[in-house]
């Protein structure tokens, strides 16, 4: 029996997902929960429940992905969160 060759075909969706980056929020000992929650709502467009959940994940795990997308979409959020003295990184 001949071995079958496996091939991977990339769809347009696969190509789009390759350009997906993450905006990660890191925990700090300076900012209050309310400040972080307000920033997530105002800057990242989170609803209050999502913002609170991300704040708790960041607190307990040390970091949390707060937004995904192309770098050019994440850069304004990165800049504004940084301006608010929150530690963020685009990965």
Summarize the structure.
With 91 residues, this protein is of the alpha+beta class.
Question: Which properties best describe this structure?
Answer:
single chain; 91 residues; alpha+beta; Ribosomal Protein L30, Chain: A; three-stranded antiparallel β-sheet; 49% helix
Give an account of the 3D structure.
By secondary structure, the protein is α+β, with helices and mostly antiparallel strands. It has a single domain, classed as Ribosomal Protein L30, Chain: A (2-Layer Sandwich), CATH 3.30.1390.10. The chain is 49% helix and 18% strand. It is built from four helices and three strands; from the N terminus they run αβααβαβ. Strands 2-1-3 form a three-stranded antiparallel beta sheet. Helix 2 (33-44) crosses helix 3. The longest helix has 14 residues, at 48-61. The radius of gyration is 18 Å and the shape is globular. The termini are far apart. The model has no long low-confidence stretch (mean pLDDT 88).
